[in-house]
Amino acid sequence: MATQKRQRSPAEIEDAILRKMFLVSLTDSMENDSRVVYLEMTAAEILSEGKELRLSRDLMERILIDRLSGGFESAEPPFPYLLGCYRRAYEEGKKIQSMKDKNVRSEMEIVVKQAKKLSVSYCRLHLGNPGLFPSAVVSGANKSSVSPLLPLIFSEVSSSVGGFGGSSSSSGGCPPGFLEEFFRDSDFDSLDPILKALYEDLRGSVLKVSALGNFQQPLRALLFLVSFPSGAKSLVNHPWWIPKGAYLNGRVIEMTSILGPFFHVSSLPDHTIFKSEPDVGQQCFSEASNRRPADMLSSFTTIKTLMNNLNDGLSEVLLSLLKNSETRESVLEYLAEVINKNSSRAHIQVDPISCASSGMFVNLSAVMLRLCEPFLDANLTKRDKIDHKYVFYSTRLDLRGLTALHASSEEVAEWINKVNPGKTDSRQYSDGENRLLQSQEATSSGSNAFGPFSPHNPKPMSSSGEKAKYPFICECFFMTARVLNLGLLKAFSDFKHLVQDISRCEDALLNLKDTRGSAPSPQLESDIARLEKEIESYSQEKLCYEAQILRDGALIQQALSFCRLMVVWLVGLVGGFKMPLPSTCPMEFACMPEHFVEDAMELLIFASRIPKALDGVLLDDFMNFIIMFMASPNFIRNPYLRAKMVEVLNCWMPRRSGSSITATLFEGHQLSLEYLVRNLLKLYVDIEFTGSHTQFYDKFNIRHNIAELLEYLWQVPSHRNAWRQIAKEEEKGVYLNFLNFLVNDSIYLLDESLNKILELKELEAEMSNTAEWERRPAQERQERTRLFHSQENIIRIDMKLANEDVSMLAFTSEQITAPFLLPEMVERVANMLNYFLLQLVGPQRKSLSLKDPEKYEFRPKHLLKQIVYIYVHLAKGDTENIFPSAISKDGRSYYEKLFSDAAEVLRKIGEDGRVIQEFIELGAKAKVAASEAMDTEEALGEIPDEFLDPIQYTLMKDPVILPSSKITVDRPVIQRHLLSDNTDPFNRSHLTPDMLIPNDELKARIQEFIRSQELKKHGEGLSMQSTKATIQTTTGEMTLID
Question: Which GO biological process entries does UniProt record here (predicted)?
């Protein structure tokens, strides 16, 4: 009969468990497990104390110290040993659960818990003081410099289900609960050096890693560490949180701060010194033209997904730190330092050695937009938390040096001192702000708690003696605005320049390949190879931008939502969306940084060119803003910024956007119907003088956008009615100025185009003479070929603009004729039309023939018809019959057969017979007017100099005195001059039409002179008739006598 197994006592069970967990023995029993260490000295001490050789919880720490300090041969190093102790304790803990005796089970659970706690505690002690235990020194020679905790953390975050996804798994290097216990509830001073080393390791692991590298594991590890209060505190107290030093700049922060290398992870190109691996462009987009569309789409999707993972993770890291009141301030200081040290990224040329990369700032843009999400709700209910005073009084961000919307830096300084002399506005975070950060939600349920937005209600919350503090929403808003300017918007600009570089290289390559046939050379082949390599490199970079930015619709829409908040908030500074604007610009608005508006406009332009990017975006607020400020130089000083608003509208035209949503902005929008045409006409005039040295050429591009919009709006009945009303109300105001500049531009552009055509034909003739051309040096041929292509481009652009202007003159003159026929305008218009008519149908017309005129936008038949329509339209509206006289007065282009020659050409090209007839009748009237003018000139005889206009040398009809120079001129002549230039032509002093002084005395003398000359002529006529009658009578009498 078998003997019954003896039941072990609790002390024996405890001894067995402790021996298993700590792999130690107090007896030299030659254990099978080679890891078990015989603690001979410890056993001797216990015996000398009269105790039994058995392990107990009271001896636990003692045996652990002896095991770690003993320097036993072939024993595990301290860290893996302690980690093993924890793992074995965890396993024993699971076995204990099956014990039937509750009291024993409870006692053993206490033992296991104590063992785990002790293992973790000594792990901290060892990692904080690596030289403390001798065996650590022995193993140190072959040991990696990376913290042994790092692989455990990687194992933990790779197997856990968190914000980054992944699958759950209990297997791996880290025993469950170890890291949680290691970092939680410990003395900060003992953990801090360990955490700092871990952060340095994490930073190093992502240094120069691209979007295709392994950044996700270190990022998860970073998020894991900052989830512990001690981890968050240690991170922001790390010396590399914000690096210090005399040579600190944007790039130094990016490469040496703990977070910098994480933000540097990107697919965007960077300077060679800082280039990341693997090379995204090379790996995903090399020889892109030969790749299948499905492969390209896969690359785009992969990069977009990876970058979203990165930015989601980084925003979680920052949010975790921002939720913690102890670390929030440090995060804001870090962001401010990154922004301030990279302010020169706003320059056209960016120094890549001193500035952080585009990749970092595009990532930072995406992260900041994620932080803004809670206050970007549809109703923008939190905008009253944004305080304009932050721009002036914040000591965190450098905002005061930025170009303001209207105020000069001196005006800003003067206003600040006047409004708040020697005081500092101050705020604390409200409970609501803290709740917002804790939840990262901005629901509309509490939106009504905020009253109407008032820029004059800063709600100071703390004593004026403290450093100014602002709500998180306010800080986040202004920081995001700066980051977008230096990041996403700068990237848009870089992308645009990249596209231009590719186009330039492709044109140059085409020219070189054209030359290859006629003058091959080794240098030429070398240049071709170099250009092909450049184009391949540029194309890869372009596709990287497209993958990370253009294809990320969510990023673009988040940025648009932020910009919508920006414009709504800015409009709040001038009293809200209402017209007309206040008579004076509030300084709160005038002092705001100009780039706030410019960035919003640039983003709208860029987004408008990306398919579906505007879907679901609320555009009404942008439309209101543009209409309010596009023609308001007293609110937005920079004319180029106001012109950019027109570019936005141009992108929104239905035929360009292909969207019915944008059509309603023009055709069903109240402010648009009332003010859009008026403000476009005003901007057309204002843009004549921008103050830039390139203003003469800039105005044509800006007016091209305005002209396209006006042509579209003319086709909308409500806008056309508004246009006619403006022309009536502003006949002698803005509309007359608009018409004057439209005529000026038409004359310049068409004249320039026609002259360039003659030059182009000369070049064509040179190149077509093959024998002569081949004898010329290769370099000369290349230069002449370049000139030829340059002339082609100039003609194409100028002719396109000229066609637009002439077309606008044609369609507007059909219904609006009065301004064309004003005394100061009618002769200018007639001269222009006569000149164009002469060029198109006169003796020299054949010299303008081109092989492919359509290539140059040159359509002479259509242009002739448009010019004839203008003639006919003005003739119909000419109730006082002044137009024929103006036509015939043109001594440069008008001649008697001009109209009949034009009518002959019109018949050949199939113009409507009624139009031709009306045109011929106008020509006949001009002929009569010319004859009458000659008779009048003959009747007046020699005119005294004092009656002649000193500018035109024509007889004055309405003489006026110029107040400054005191010279008398004819009113229509000076008024025509003032349409283009508000200065006295004799001394350049300021002059406006209302300053002209009528010279009534001289006018009366001129009228008397005309009457006397007419009477004199009339008297001479009667005398001649009397003489003729006498001669006839005498002749009759002689006949009778005979």
Answer: ERAD pathway; protein polyubiquitination; ubiquitin-dependent protein catabolic process
DSSP 616: T
pLDDT band at 759 (very low <50, low <70, confident <90, very high): confident
Partners of 25 in beta bridges:
38
Percent of the chain with pLDDT over 90: 48
Query: What's this model's pTM, rounded to 2 decimal places?
Result: 0.85
Q: What is the pLDDT of residue 1022?
A: 52
Q: Which residues of 505-534 are buried (b: 16+ CB within 10 A; e: fewer)?
A: beebbebbeebeeeeeeeebeebbeebeeb
Q: How far apart are CA 322 and CA 46, in angstroms?
A: 53
- Which is nearest to 605 in space by CA: 626, 589, 574? 626
Token pair belonging to 342: 């990279």
* Long-range pairs for 640-644: beta carbons < 8 A, 24 or more residues apart: 640/690, 640/692, 640/698, 640/702, 641/594, 641/597, 641/598, 641/601, 642/683, 642/686, 643/683, 643/687, 643/702, 643/705, 644/598, 644/601, 644/602, 644/605
Structural contact between residues 561 and 500, judged by C-beta atoms closer than 8 angstroms:
no
Chain centroid, CA 955 distance in Å: 56
Q: Each residue of 843-874: b (16+ CB within 10 Å) or e?
A: eeeeebeeeebeebbbebeebbbbbbbbbbbb
User: 424 - beta bridge partners?
Assistant: none
Residue 140's pLDDT is 42
C-alpha distances out from residue 986 to 200, 966, 999, Å: 74, 10, 18
Looking at every residue in the chain, the average pLDDT score rounds to: 85
Measure the CA–CA gap between 351 and 97, rounded to whole angstroms.
65
Residue 10 CA to residue 1035 CA, distance in Å, equals 169
Based on its alpha-carbon atoms, the radius of gyration of the chain, rounded to whole angstroms, reads: 43
CB 696: neighbour CB atoms within 10 A?
A: 11
Q: How far apart are CA 530 and CA 144, in angstroms?
A: 45
Minimum mean pLDDT range among 3-7, 158-162, 237-241, 774-778 = 158-162
CB-side neighbour CA atoms (13 Å) of 578: 7
- pLDDT for residue 445: 34
pLDDT given for residue 207 in this prediction: 93
Q: Are 188 and 179 in contact (CB under 8 A)?
A: no
d(CA 644, CA 651): 11
Strand partners, 162: 165
| CA separation for the pair 906, 841 (Å, rounded) | 10
DSSP per-residue string spanning 218-264: HHHHHHHHHTSHHHHHHHHTSTTTS--STT--HHHHHHHSSSHHHHH
Q: What's the rounded Cα separation, in Å, for the pair 504 and 510?
A: 10
Q: For residues 608 and 197, what is the distance between their CA atoms, to the nearest angstrom?
A: 47
Average pLDDT over residues 607-625: 90
pLDDT tens track for 912-953: 889 999 999 999 999 998 887 777 766 667 878 888 888 877
- Coil, helix or strand for 342? coil
Residue 510 token pair: 């085409």
Among residues 803, 872, 827, 834, which one has the least CA distance to residue 979?
827
Helix (H/G/I), strand (E/B), else coil: 789? helix
- DSSP, collapsed to helix, strand or coil, labels residue 842 as coil
